[in-house]
Amino acid sequence: MNTVLEKGNIIAKIRKGEDLEQIIDYVKSEIYQNGPNSSVVLEILSYFKLFQPEFLTKDEQEIISTMGLFFKHPKIESLTGSVFEMYHQQLNSEFGNDYTPMQADILKKIRDLQYFSFSAPTSTGKSFVFRHLITDCSNDVVVIVPSRALINEYYDRLNSLVDRKTVNVLTFVDRINTKHIHRNIFILTPERAKELFKNKDWLNIDLILFDEAQLSDEHSVRGLYFDSIVRRALKYFPDAKFVFAHPFVENPEAQLQKNGIEIIDTTATYKNYELKNVGQIFYTHDTTSQKFYHFGSVPITLGKRKLEANFDPIESALKKGGSVLIYVPKSHIYSKQIYGQFQKYVSMCQPINDPVAIKMIDELKEYIGASTTDKLFYNSDMLEKLRCGIVVHHGSMPLTARLILEHFTQQGFCKICFATSTLEQGINMPFDVVYLDRFEESKTLSVKNLIGRAGRSTNKPVFDFGSVVLRPNAMSRFRNVYRKKNTLSSKSRLDTTDDKMDEKYEEYKEAINSGEFSDEYNLTNKDLEKLKSDSVTTVVPTLLDMMFNGKDFVLPNAVAKEVYEDFQCLYKQYLGRELTAAEKYVFDSAIKIMIWKVHGKTFSKICQERYAYVSKVAQRRLLSKTGHQEDADNLTVRYIAGYSDIPDKELRAFPLFPADTKGKDVDYDRIVYDTYDFLDKLIGFKLSDLFYAIFHQYFIEYQDDRAERLAKFIKYGTEDPTEIWMLRYGFSFEEIEWLKPCVDSIDQSEIIFNEKIENLSDVQKSSISKFIF
């Protein structure tokens, strides 16, 4: 090591201006020889940018060239810069873009190989490569991601890159618009990917890309399902290319080993890239003294003692128009303690007047059905904070809302984002500062991914860096995590026998391994048999009699309590046991929401119904009108069960709001988050498949049309053939409301509009432009 570095205290030396030439020479030499793959070297460079920006100016352009950041178009000011510019021109002529060497290598490997598994840090632009790779394919492409939040990210970007009149970009597997479409890009979660195998006969897949593929290591049904999708895809689509991408994984070859893919050439089939585009600086924040301290990730080189900073990095970033991510527990978002805890920074965020931002906020307001004018009814604190550029982001945030918030952030309107670990899953939302108010040492990959959000890789010809702030007690734990190597298991859980999971998990695993699994119903064959039993088929007709009044569905508020009991009875048959009292409360809430959906209620209407019930809106309004405001204000809430994952024998009953909560104090946002959890995690992920299978199988067996109608409502939320086709074309119920009168005809081949489309707004017209020829 360079003698200057051996003496340590590099941070202090750079701040004081000592040995700057020797230190920068070491940095330049390291990057020239090894590329930008040392976090410590980039950390040192970040301190030059912070403390000695004038000094760095003479070498900055050469360093950017040597780092291979050709998309920044650095000025050629030295011989080294000229050499790397020649390299840039060569890559550009070969790949037709300003790729970094790492991006070009990924692209080359994917083009040359049928199987490629690799790892690369966040913020290195792998998604940029993927998007261009996907658009260059001539046939179908499948992208498999771990969450529906990431589906949004891909869907959004790809829609702006491809010719939407000739390419379907779909978040489910379907065959639509066949008269005009030449190929499809499917962006799917593992659960939705099962549809590929049902449709294999007409698919012509060039590429299957598994992004954030570390999900395969998850100790859950999802982890099992991920591996099962890989194996079945290898079997059914043997000519397709398979690419596995991970962040911060030491052994990407594990993905090939666990799925029996032969590693022909170790230098080609997998690779762990360590190159980075941005540097990072680390601070601790003493909340008692409100002081910030610099500390180095490697004490022996950067300094064994932390160094007091003479400024507040969060305040500094906000004053410069930057943005800050504060990683907090979800409970602190719900309790709103984050606003008091970070009051200093929250108060720096002034109302936004930009019309684009205001339009996004209004879109979100309409989607969730909130009010921002009446504090006593349907008031959304989330929207009020958003007007000042303060975003909250967590796993119970509805997907549509999350997409709006991600656009809001990417367009530079977000000043502070309070987020839980949902941001770790590769969503492209970089920040100038990341503050880890919560540090989970056990979740190494999560921590590294969150840290990776610090620092924007801009197109400007400058060296970019971000800042990470921790609590003082997390400093040594952070260093351990930062240095820790993350490895994936090279053996699939499909092949292990030592899993200690519940019976359903084991049943599921056995069904996947033996092929005793129904793609049509997304259930094991064993479960399907259970759902055909006499104890099920005797309940179904009684339930149908209560759900229908002649040809019409019974309205939700007229649904008898026996309906809930019958649904419970069907669920008990599936589980093979009684439900606990706590499970019943949760299940009944889910059924109520499912029945509202069956009646075509939009998400906003369901939220409003639940809010009105729990907070006694009708009674409070009546008391207010008759001059009894004090009585209205003192009315307390009705009991409503909050979302919990079931089945769970250990679950304890709890209300969403404590019994002494005043109706006027009910948090509308909590209703929104809880409703989304029910719809997405319980109804969408579990109950829909189960009840669709029950009613659809009953229809096939007994030809009772009501069973088929109910099955369609459970699956689609409608039985109307036009509406079902519109859903298959990717329209939401909110869009169907205004678009349906404009549809002349719709089927698998195309959608034909009538003259009423002339009356649509410009925004509405733009959302259907890809279907107008």
TrEMBL record:
Residues 107-288 form the Helicase ATP-binding domain. InterPro entries: DEAD/DEAH_box_helicase_dom, Hel308_SKI2-like, Helicase_ATP-bd, Helicase_C-like, P-loop_NTPase. The keyword Iron does not apply. GO terms for molecular function: ATP binding; helicase activity; hydrolase activity; nucleic acid binding. Keywords: ATP-binding, Helicase, Hydrolase, Nucleotide-binding. The keyword Hydrolase applies. PANTHER family: DNA POLYMERASE THETA, PUTATIVE (AFU_ORTHOLOGUE AFUA_1G05260)-RELATED, DNA-DIRECTED DNA POLYMERASE. This is Helicase-like protein.
